[in-house]
Write a structure and sequence with these properties.
The strands form two sheets. The chain has a six-stranded mixed beta sheet, sandwiched between helices. The chain has a single domain, classed as 3-Layer(aba) Sandwich (Rossmann fold). A hairpin with a 2-residue loop joins strand 1 and strand 2. The protein contains seven helices and ten strands. The longest helix has 16 residues. It is globular and about 50 Å long. The chain starts with 7 loop residues before the first strand and ends with a strand. About 35% of the residues lie in helices and about 30% in strands. Helix 3 crosses helix 4. The protein is an alpha/beta fold and about 230 residues long. Keywords: ATP-binding, Nucleotide-binding, Transport. GO terms for molecular function: ATP binding. InterPro entries: AAA+_ATPase, ABC_transporter-like_ATP-bd, ABC_transporter-like_CS, MacB-like_ATP-bd, P-loop_NTPase.
């Protein structure tokens, strides 16, 4: 990829589902680009198609039509194994419900994607420790999720997402399960990660959350209806 090429290029992306014999268009010919280091919020109401778009951008699913270039690679042409490698190395996922394994400690949860990457134990343990220190959980590394507050669990999820230094962090309603104060703390952490160079793609239905991004892409009924820079 050349230095000037966007990190993400989406061209005429469309996707449909068939339910009870009826075909429903979920994404309708979407086109946009995202540059390395941007902080973009994708906003829309429930049923707008934003979650489907998140799955496409996260290489969790493949669109029916159109083109998706990630770091210069056409995603629709890649094998399942290659897609799994991209998810592990290039994309860190932060989910609304944390998605932590309950029987593992915080540090073991953070280590998981590093295990899949094939890193030796000592290296992945060090990276996991460093990530947990960055999110302020140095004294909670060996606690299980049930021993942590919701905000602390989301911090573990953020540490897990960033431990391997992926260029992209994909955050799906990261404050949805948190109270207002804790949600503000998590958003501050996400903004800091953006300042450190991570490309942030934030999926939300909340305009106040979206306003914290540099740019808003609004999805409605599967259509891209707005793509604008935030005034600040």
């Amino acid at each position: 990829m050349s230095a000037s090429a966007p990190l993400i290029e989406v061209h005429d992306m469309s996707h449909s589902y068939t339910m009870a014999g009826e075909t429903m268009t979920v994404l309708n010919s979407l086109s946009f680009t995202i540059d390395l280091g941007e902080f973009v919020a994708i906003i829309g109401p429930s049923g707008s198609g934003k979650s489907t778009l998140m799955n496409m951008l996260g290489c969790l699913d493949i669109s029916d039509e159109g083109s998706y270039l990630l770091d210069g690679q056409e995603v629709r042409k890649l094998s399942d194994n290659k897609l799994a490698t991209i998810r592990n190395e290039k994309i860190g996922f932060i989910f609304q419900n944390f998605n932590l394994l309950p029987k593992l400690s915080a540090i073991e949860n953070v280590e998981l994607p590093l295990i899949y990457r094939g890193l030796p134990h000592r290296e992945r343990r060090q990276l996991a420790q460093e990530a947990l220190i960055k999110v302020g959980l140095e004294d909670r590394m060996h606690h299980r999720p049930s021993e942590l507050s919701g905000g602390q669990q989301q911090r573990v999820a953020i540490a897990r997402a960033m431990a391997g230094s992926p260029p992209i962090l994909l955050a799906d309603e990261p404050t949805g399960a948190l109270d207002t104060r804790t949600g503000q703390e998590v958003m501050q952490m996400i903004r800091e990660l953006n300042k450190q160079g991570h490309t942030i793609i934030l999926i939300t239905h909340d305009l106040e959350i979206a306003k914290q991004a540099e740019r808003i892409i609004r999805i409605q009924d599967g259509n891209l209806v707005e793509d604008r820079r935030n005034a600040g």
